[in-house]
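Sequence and fold:
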Amino acid sequence: MKGSEFLSALVKSLARDVDERREAVGLLLNLCSDFEVRRRIGRIRGCIVMLVSISNNGSDDNNREDDDEASRNARMLLSYMSGNTQHALHMAEAGYFKPMIKYLTEGSEMSKVIMATAISRLELTDQNKASLGKEGAIAPLIEMFKTGNLEAKLSSLNALESLSNSEKNIQRLIHSGIVVALMQLLFSVTSVLMTLREPASAILAKVAKSEGILVKHEVVQQMLSLLNLSSPVIQNHLLEALNNIVSHSSASKVRKKMKENGAIQLVVPFFNEKDARIRTGALRLVHMLSEDIQGELIEELDYSQIRVIANIVVMSSSDRERAAALGILSNLPLSDRKTTEILKNENLLPLVVSIMSSLTPQNSTPTLVESISGVLLRFTVSTDKRLQRYSAENGVIPILIKMLSTGSEASRSKAALSLAQLSQNTLHLSKSRKLKWFCGAPSVDSFCEVHDGYCSAKSTFCLVKSGAVTPLVEILEGEERGADEAVLSCLSTLLQDEIWESGSNYLAKKSSVCSVIRVLESGSFKAKEKCIWILERVFRVETHREEYGESAQMVLIDIAQNGDPLLASGVAKLLAQLDLLQYQSTYF
């Protein structure tokens, strides 16, 4: 009964119906008291996998009692067989980790190393890694790292690095206090421990994904101080860890402290690094840190460094690297003309237009588009018409309109602001139809009903002729409210004092008044202020009061009664326009 053929037949029965499976497991259990039998059973292909499957039985069959008996017997059989480390490894491969964890906790030094090494090499799913952490693998691995010999330390760190890909395990690692031990290792100058620094830094990079690391206030400054003292691999991991830390929504104090301690100037030299991963990590970190100090960033970077960043955009083929570099450039003060001149000389504008033109919804990176939209704000400032013309000639306006439809909320907002800056000058650039000095008769299609002159997207930056109004209004009709203020600012340029009536008629023609009323009801305070300003001009026209007054009045009354008191005066004026309130009212 203990021959290989008989045992193989029993193993094949494990895959058959409930009764035969139960009988087969029972027989194998009775026979496994013999060491040689256990060894033979474990070597039969598929045996351990089927036993693990039976032990995890979901009791879906009708013969539930029989199936539960098979499940119990299978667990007992696995327990007997786990005395062989090779069998325990096969069980782990099949997703049964109790024997492996037992070896890590109670086994010999060698068996602990074998199991830790296996964890780092097995192709474990995220669920497997979470299960290992839940069942207790992390504590003995940390103990190996702290008290074991060099081989034990290295195998345990590699195992912990693998397990740290699980978010739940990251929390377990933080709670274990391992961060302090890892930092001590990174500062160690003992040569025998140098091989441990790379996996240690890799674990830190992953642990930093959790906001729990923010309670370790000293860790960030320690990581920064290690940057120039480490190998390229460790530098990359440290930069990844720092980027993970500063990206947390609750890390504003950490970012402020880093900037006060000179983090930007410490990281900027890495912009010249040949290793693209390190260079990108440094760019991303400075980008994140510069988000809160846009007006002060020029004090942290000299113009030669700005040229380096611009050159990275030109030379790089990585969207991630370009996004970070452009993000830094977008955070430089718009009023700094020297920066603008540098970027023009580097031909940055034609390049970003080309990049944006090649992007589709399928291959675009939101952070890249946001960074480009931020840079375009510099090239469309309303105080520099020559720069605006340069931008229009390089195809900026179609790109901005594309962003309105395909970009993120942040990029749509910046695109709308750029269009607003351009549109502010349209009225003064528009060619009056009363003038007779045209070289040739202008096209009938170029006449603009809003500006009462001849317009085009490229020569006068006209919102009407560029087709920008429809996608702008579509943003107001959407569910996201973050870009409302910028969009309303843009539409307001069609209601300047000289053209408010024709602009009002055009907005009504494009069915945008209802969208403005919708934002008045649900938008932010600043968006509501802009809605009130727009509606005050629109409602000067009697036909618009008649068409839209009824839909606006309930919203206006609700704001007057329950809204922000700072809006009361503007709301009261609108209600008076609609003959719902006397101009002498105390609301004014």
